[in-house]
Amino acid sequence: MKHRVGEHKAKKGLIRIEFDEENGIAEHVRITGDFFMHPEEAVHELEEKLEGHRLEELEQLMDEFFAMRMDIEMPYVNVEDFKIALKNALKE
Question: What distance lies between CA 68 and its chain's CA centroid?
Fold first, then answer.
C-alpha cells in the first residue's frame, strides 16, 4: 500500500488530498485544507465519490461530482484547484 498526498495553494486556501493506493485503487480518501465549501457535507460526499475507484478514474469522477452538484459554493477556489491537488498526489 502506498500513501499519496497532493497539495495545491489556490487563490484563497490550501487544498490537500490524501489517500492510500492499493492495487491502483484509492482508499481512505481525505480532502482537507483551509478552503470554504458550502454545504459542508459536500467535501465528505466528494471523498466518498472517489473512494474505491481506480486512480485513472479520479479526475473524471471529480468533474462529474461538481457538474452534478451545482449547489456547491466555493469562494476563491474552483474545480481546477481540486484537480491540481489530485494530480500532485498522483505524481510518483
Answer: 15
